[in-house]
Write a structure and sequence with these properties.
By secondary structure, the protein is of the alpha/beta class. It has 6 helices and 5 strands. The structure holds adenosine-5'-diphosphate.
Length: 169
């Protein structure tokens, strides 16, 4: 039987990308023919990095994966997924709170756009990592170097410096 190439979209705000996101990308790339990391805007969250900065960071970190592409979008996620003809939506799960939220989101997306969602459980060591927590700790001068890639930590330090918020680590 002929194999139809499967394109997955991994949407998120990635502000900034964490070791948890990278873990999901590393697993997802083994399951799909193409994986599109799509950087979107979450109206409920205030930006730290611009969408372009986030795309650039993720491109750099996924350079070793030829099947991964990174793009940004500013419409509804399902609209973007349909436009790029994604077959499935990839989302990461950390805990039961994620399951509850993601369950509702996946049901809605299937109902309104007919797109299926595939979930990947993060590895235990990143189960507690979120971009929101990284931003909060960093803005208060804390050390987040174990939660995000080194290149992201360097850019974070620079960003906080620009905002007049020096970092300890
Ligand atoms: P959003 O604002 O759309 O939730 P995020 O950038 O916060 O975007 O997350 C994007 C996806 O990555 C979501 O499916 C989220 O559950 C998942 N994710 C975030 N952090 C982790 C982590 N540490 N391990 C696994 N999945 C994660």
């Amino acid at each position: 039987m002929e194999h139809k190439p499967i394109t997955a979209i991994f949407p998120g705000s990635f502000d900034p990308i964490t070791n948890g996101h990278l873990d999901v990308i590393g697993r997802g790339v083994q399951l799909f023919d193409r994986l599109i990391v799509a950087v979107g805007q979450n109206p409920a969250k205030e930006d730290l990095f611009t969408p372009d900065e986030r795309v650039e960071m993720i491109r750099e970190l996924t350079r070793a994966y030829p099947r991964v592409t990174v793009e940004s979008y500013d419409c509804l996620t399902v609209e973007y997924a349909t436009r790029i003809k994604a077959d499935v939506m990839l989302r990461g799960l950390r805990n039961l709170t994620d399951v509850q939220y993601e369950f509702q989101l996946a049901m809605t997306n299937r109902r309104v756009a007919g797109i299926e969602t595939v979930f990947i459980m993060t590895s235990e060591e990143y189960g507690f990592v979120s971009s929101t927590m990284v931003r909060e700790i960093a803005l208060l001068g804390g050390d987040v170097s174990k939660l995000i890639p080194r290149s992201v930590n360097d850019l974070l330090k620079r960003k906080l410096g620009e905002k007049g918020l020096p970092r300890k680590a």
